[in-house]
C-alpha cells in the first residue's frame, strides 16, 4: 500500500502536463485564427499524501484584492459571446460556391434587363391598342374634338378679350365653325350629284378614247383582248353581287357610326371650349403628386404644339386646294370644286393624302379629257406639292411641329392599320405632341437635378431658364 500514493502522484503530474500542452496548442490555434488567447488559471497539483488539513472558517469580511491569482475560477459573464473553436488544421479546405448572378456576364445581364422591360412595354402597348380598337369610335370622336378645339380656341380667346362672356364666345365660335363645315360638306355633295350625269357620260367617252389609244399604241393591244378584259370585269361584278350587297348594308352601318361620331365630336368640342381649364385641372389631379409639376408644365406646351399643327395644316391645305382647284378649273376638268375640297380634306394626312388626292384629280382628268389633259393636271399637282413641301410647311409650321419624314410615314402607316383613315389623320399630331412632351420632361429633369446639386453643395442658386418658356426660343 506504500506504493499507491506514489503512483497517484505521478499520474496527477502527467495529467497536469497534458493539460498544459492542450492549453498551449489551443493558444497557438487561436493566434493563427486571429482570436485573443484565453488565459486559464493553472490548476494546482493534486496532492495525494493525505487529506488536507482542516482550515478554519473564513471570516465574514471580504478578502482584500491582490494581484496574484487566487486559484479559483471566477464565474463567466452571461453576456460574453461563446467561443467557437476554428476547424482543425488537418481538415480539407472547401471553396465557397460563387453567386449565380456573378457567374453571368455583365453584358448578358444588361441585355436581359433591357429585354424584359421591352417585353413589358410591348405588352402594354398591345393591350392599349386593343382597348383603343374596341372603343375606336369614342377615341376618334374625342381626338377629332381636340383637333377642332385647337382650331377654334384662339377665336374664343379673342372674343373673350373683346368683352364677351365665356358662354357666348364659346357658342358663337362653335356654331359658326360647325355651320361652315356643314356648308362645305353640303356643297361638295351637291356638286357631285349635280355633275354626276355629265361625269358618267364623260367617263364613257374617256374609256372609248382610252380604248382607241390602246389599239393604236405600240403595245400591240388587240380589240379582242380589251373586250375580254371588259367581259372578265363584268363577270366578276356579277359573281360578287352578294358581297357588294353586303358591303352596301355595311355601308349603312358605317354611316350610322359616322353620324354618331360626329355628334360625339360636337358635344366634346363644346365642353372642351367652355371648360377646358377645369378639365385639365381634373386630369392633373389624377397624376401622382411627385410627377404633377412636370406634367403641369408639359400640358401647355403640348397644347401649343397641337394648336400650331392644326392651324398650320389648315392654312397649307387651303392653299393647296385653292391652287390645284384653280389649275384644274382652267384645264377644263369637270367637278373642279369638289376635287379641290377633297384635296383640302386629304391634306390632313401628311404625304399620303397629297398623293391620293393628286392621283384622284389625274384619274378624273384622264377618263374625261384624255391623256394630254391628265399630264397637265399632274404637272400642276406636282408643282403645288413641291411648293408646299419646300416653302409652305417650313415657313408656316416652323419648328413647333417638325417631325422627320420617316417618322411621318411610319406613324401614318401605323395609324392607318390601327384606326383606318381616322388613325392616319391623328397619327402625325400625336407624334408631334409626344415629341414635344418628351423634350420638355427631359429638360425639366435636368433642371431639377441641377437645382438639387446646388442645394446639396450649398452654392448660390444659378438662374435657370424655366423649361415652360422654352418654346419662345
Distance between the termini: 118 Å
Radius of gyration, in angstroms, nearest whole number:
46 Å
Could you spell the SSE succession in H and E letters? HHHHHHHHHHHHH
**SSE class:** mainly alpha
Provide mean pLDDT, rounded: 74
Number of strands: 0
Alpha plus pi helix count: 13
Shape: elongated
InterPro entries: AI-2E-like (IPR002549)
Pfam family, one: AI-2E_transport
Keywords: Cell membrane, Membrane, Transmembrane, Transmembrane helix, Transport
Membrane topology: Multi-pass membrane protein
Describe this structure in words.
This protein has 473 residues and is mostly helical. It has a domain at 137-207 and 214-284. It has 13 helices and no strands. The chain has helices at residues 4-33, 100-103, 106-134, 136-161, 166-194, 196-216, 223-239, 241-286, 292-330, 336-346, 352-369, 371-396, 405-457. Helix 4 (136-161) packs across helix 13 (405-457), helix 9 packs antiparallel against helix 12 and helix 10 runs antiparallel to helix 11. The radius of gyration is 46 Å and the shape is elongated. Belongs to the autoinducer-2 exporter (AI-2E) (TC 2.A.86) family. Pfam families: AI-2E_transport. Its main location: membrane.
